[in-house]
Design brief:
Number of strands: 6
Order of helices and strands: HEEHEEHEE
Distance between the termini: 28 Å
Radius of gyration: 17 Å
Strand order of the largest sheet: 2-1-6-5-4-3
Structural class: alpha+beta
Oligomer: single chain
Strand content: 35-45%
Largest sheet: 6 strands, mixed
Helix content: 10-25%
Shape: elongated
Number of helices: 3
Length: 164
């Protein structure tokens, strides 16, 4: 059974991670405050492994002038050993395009790219606290234009998924 302390600690880790992204707080070994050094991150843009995966997260938010990530409904299940946990949460991710990007999209383009999604994570308890060892980001819906990507494959907006 998950204690209120574990629920709080993991929920706070998620909130602090999103805040670090939005405030562009990438000083020093910033990522080790949130993830293990062998983390695996799966996103709609691809899969990255190791602490370098956090460079991809940093690069992703820096494609925008500003971002705001909001996490809600964090659900935590701690294993009987109390050394690992599973967590999931809903996320609303709002991205404000750079002026240069908007010019590429045209004069009537929305300045916002918004994503509603769900995160699934595996966590490990470390001496310094809980750390994410695996994280999957799933976009459920999007609005407007995704970022302009350097690679050939660009994201397409995902229509709202039907209710289950």
């Amino acid at each position: 059974m998950t204690s209120q302390t574990e629920q709080f600690d993991i929920g706070t880790l998620v909130s602090r991670f999103f805040r670090a992204l939005d405030e562009r707080d990438f000083r020093g070994d910033w990522a080790l405050g949130y993830v293990t050094d062998d983390v695996r991150i799966v996103t709609p843009l691809g899969t990255a492994e190791g602490i370098g995966a956090m460079d991809a997260a940093q690069e992703s938010v820096e494609r925008y002038a500003r971002t705001q990530h909001i996490a809600s409904d964090v659900i935590v299940d701690v294993a009987a050993s109390s050394e690992t946990a599973q967590a999931s949460w809903n996320a609303l991710m709002t991205h404000v395009h750079h002026d240069e990007t908007l010019q590429q999209f045209g004069k009537d383009a929305s300045p916002l790219f918004t994503v509603g999604g769900r995160y699934e994570a595996e966590l490990q308890r470390r001496p310094e606290g809980w750390r994410i060892s695996h994280m999957t980001v799933r976009a459920i819906w999007t609005t407007a234009h995704p970022p302009v990507l350097a690679q050939a494959a660009e994201l397409s907006p995902v229509p709202l998924a039907p209710a289950r």
